């Protein structure tokens, strides 16, 4: 088409910057194996199904631990009646 | 650089804005430039393309319909070409309808939805005027589906970072929710613990209260087994007294409940029996007392009657003076006859006296004996006097006799009454004696003396007293059993308190630990997610901070080329410092003359410069698109609204760069300035130039190809 279409694309100064490059730097700053492990799972979910998948995974995780705690409380209360 | 998949080949417009009857504009994939005076319909072409793709979501669509073409359709059709063939996109506002319909037919002639055909269609720019419309391919990126109106989304999208703020926002939202859930959990655990502590305090208080006055007194505190060992024989004893089998129940509290039932039954039955016996004796005593009283009264009556009879007899004897009443009656009759005779004599004497006094005869009128009248009168007076005296004496005698006779009669009546009274009393005594014999179980006809009655009454009093004493003993026994049951119950309660104290203490010490452990898991998970969120935010901030100087430079360059701003030639992008807005970006403008000062564009830029600023990211990043687009249109309606057109060749150079990937559609009234320069920059082969040579409200714009 125009002469510019034949030109090579200008170099992108933000080439190295994208979601993945940011995410890849996160684990290095995490302080515990527990955090790194959870991050790996979050990262994996993000790649698999985007933020929605992370949301589903984390909510399920919280739901499980909170349910366990609630069950513990219920069992404790029932034990006392 | 990959070219967009689709090029716009034809635009058909009917009844839209300035257009009435259908007109077709052929571009054949080339750029389009439309020259014409203001108000002749150029803008309608730009707006028609935009309307076809987006409609008017925020305004009534009826405003796009041509007021002089109400009977016809309001319709815009875009023919888009790709290598596989032609796609037809038609938006139509039917007469009378308030909303438009969009239909898309693909190269195979099949209908598809916009969301299926171009799921990532987006638009940059102000509401009117210049627009950039592009659609990313389905397989790449997550570009916003809506109108991009703020820099955050634009820049994050171009920098391919849009997932990060979304992830951060999501983590924030999850953390907020889970922190709230954790607080509730913590509150629940605290409430449970407080409740247990309160119950422990309560049971401690009860135990202390019980120990202030323990049922075991000075003896040592019994063990639970010792208490149970006391309960069983006691219950056995009551079972035996109640003629009940020993209960099979083993729970001491229930055993005591059974024992209490028996105890109540026994007490009630004994009391009832004693009461019945006492009632019988009391009835007998009452009857005996009543009979005794009646006997005494009857005896008194008899004596009184006898005495009265004797008195009457004496009175009668005196009254009759040895006679009987018949003699007295005869004498009275005789005397009454004498009174009558004497009365006759007196009457005769008085009549004779009256005669003599009146006629003064010389002889006796009866015997005719000659008597001097004076003598006769004297004799008659003597006779009358004698007769009156005799009459008076006889009358007195009769009155005395009559009085005696009447008195004797009265006495006789009184005597008869007393005799009757005496006879009644004698009958009553006989009946009472008979009843007494029956009551005291003596043979009929026997006599019951007062002494016997008295003796029987004493015996009854003793028996009733004995029963009362027996009833009292029963009450005492019941009270004693009751006390024992209560004491045993208190002991059992004490053991229960002790058990509860142990249980509550153990639960407080050990039972809550697993719950606290689970709560700690929640807190740790929150802390872990928070650390991830913080780390991600930190990394994201670092990356942005590294990007900003390049970004500022590039944006300032483009901005300057587009606007030739002299007052505020620097564009700055920075992060909002407020934690609540930490994923927001702030765009400010400044000047190299005072680099430390930055201003909000809305405060210092005019409308043209502001419009240009909104387009800057496109011109910066569209060169570096790493993905091919479905289509890429740059629609410029009156360049002077958004760009500095004083140096046309600079703007055209910028547009020429953009034309390497975008299809340009430009409408301008400045033909004298753009006309000569445009062919030099774009070349006639890639350009379609139209001129609006006239406008008729009923026929619409008159479009002709420019030479």
Any descriptors?
heterodimer, A: 81 residues, mainly alpha, 3 helices, 73% helix, elongated, B: 707 residues, alpha+beta, Rossmann fold, Helix Hairpins, seven-stranded mixed sheet, six-stranded antiparallel sheet, 16 strands
Explain this structure to me?
- The complex is a heterodimer of chains A (81) and B (707).
- Chain A has a domain at 51-81.
- In chain A, 73% of the residues lie in helices and 0% in strands.
- The termini of chain A are far apart.
- Chain A has helices spanning 3-6, 19-25, 33-80.
- Among the domains of chain B are: 1-141 and 627-707, 3-Layer(aba) Sandwich (Rossmann fold), CATH 3.40.50.300; 283-439, Helix Hairpins (Orthogonal Bundle).
- Chain B contains 14 helices and 16 strands.
- Chain B has helices at residues 42-54, 114-117, 151-158, 163-212, 224-241, 252-320, 325-359, 373-439, 450-563, 601-604, 607-621, 648-659, 671-674, 678-682; strands at residues 7-14, 23-26, 31-35, 74-82, 85-93, 101-105, 111-112, 120-124, 131-136, 570-575, 585-590, 598-599, 629-637, 663-668, 687-696, 700-705.
- Chain B has a seven-stranded mixed β-sheet with strand order 8-9-13-14-3-15-16, sandwiched between helices. Chain B has a six-stranded antiparallel β-sheet with strand order 2-1-4-5-6-7. In chain B, strands 10-11-12 form a three-stranded antiparallel β-sheet.
- In chain B, α4 (163-212) runs antiparallel to α9, α5 (224-241) crosses α9 (450-563) and α7 (325-359) packs antiparallel against α8.
- The two termini of chain B are 32 Å apart.
- The model of chain B is unreliable at 138-148 (pLDDT under 50).
- The chains are: A mainly alpha (81), B alpha+beta (707).
